Amino acid sequence: MTGRIRRQLLAERLQTPQEQPALMCPLCERVIPPAQKDAHHLVPKSKGGRHTEFLHRMCHRQVHALFTETELARQYSTVEALLAHPEMARFVAWVRGKPADFFERTRKSQRVRGR
User: Fold this and answer.
1) CB contact at 8 A, 78 and 52
2) pLDDT string in tens for the chain (115-residue length)
3) Is this structure's pTM higher than 0.70?
4) Can you tell me the distance from the alpha carbon of 81 to that of 91, in angstroms, rounded to the nearest whole number?
5) How many CB atoms neighbour CB 33 within 10 A?
6) Residues facing residue 54 across a β-bridge
7) What local confidence, expressed as pLDDT, does residue 9 receive?
8) Residue-range definition of the domain harbouring residue 29
9) Is the residue at 17 inside a domain?
10) Is residue 14 part of a domain?
């Protein structure tokens, strides 16, 4: 049996391109190309989260590079809270000027890497 998110992604892939609505990343507010679409649990599944948002793959990786799962569950469980963090706001300001299919490798912050 496949999970809810996987079923949703498979159903979207079966739709013709004309039927698919343009998804916007709630963080960087750019259109998400199908190849760059990642589902992000606002509260990690390991902490009991269920609600997901679709993000650019690069934005999703940046979220997990900056924050631990505990921090995501306790302090950054909304898009607004993520955008309020100075490092995330700086990243979003930088990436907003890039094309929708832009991708660059993301590195974990030293603070998160040390845990």
Assistant:
1) no
2) 567 778 877 777 776 555 556 789 999 999 998 888 999 999 998 888 888 899 999 999 999 999 999 999 999 999 999 999 999 999 999 998 888 887 777 766 666 666 5
3) yes
4) 14
5) 16
6) 39
7) 76
8) 24-113
9) no
10) no
Task: Count the residues in the chain.
Answer: 115
Q: What is the DSSP string of 38-107?
A: EEEESS-GGGT---EEEEEHHHHHHHHHH--HHHHHHT--SHHHHHHSHHHHHHHHHHTTS-TT------
Interacting residues of 70 by C-beta distance below 8 A, sequence separation 6+: 47
Q: Which amino acid is at 48?
A: G
When divided into structural domains, the chain yields a total of 1
- Contact status, residue 58 vs residue 36, Cβ threshold 8 Å: yes
C-alpha distance from residue 1 to each of 5, 8, 12, 15, 38 (Å) = 12, 13, 18, 21, 20
* In a domain? residue 19: no
